[in-house]
Amino acid sequence: DGEALPTFTILTTSANALLATFHERMPVILPPETWGLWLNPSRTPQQLAPMMVPYNASLMTARPVSRRLGSPRNEGAHLLEADDPAQ
Question: Is the pTM of this model over 0.90?
């Protein structure tokens, strides 16, 4: 009907060394210095493709979170805390 439909896409790439222990893919993470290029509407997909690489693993950290985070039925900031191993 011509009405705007708000949507988004998560682009993925192969996992870096840190995330490869969890999954073979990871979201594309663009460093701030590339945002202007990425958002420039005159850029072609061929010009943007080199930006879709694994993020530098040394700039990331991993930490335990709740197993409940894996279910879309669960919501809330408490999911970012590690589960109590005593439970």
Answer: no
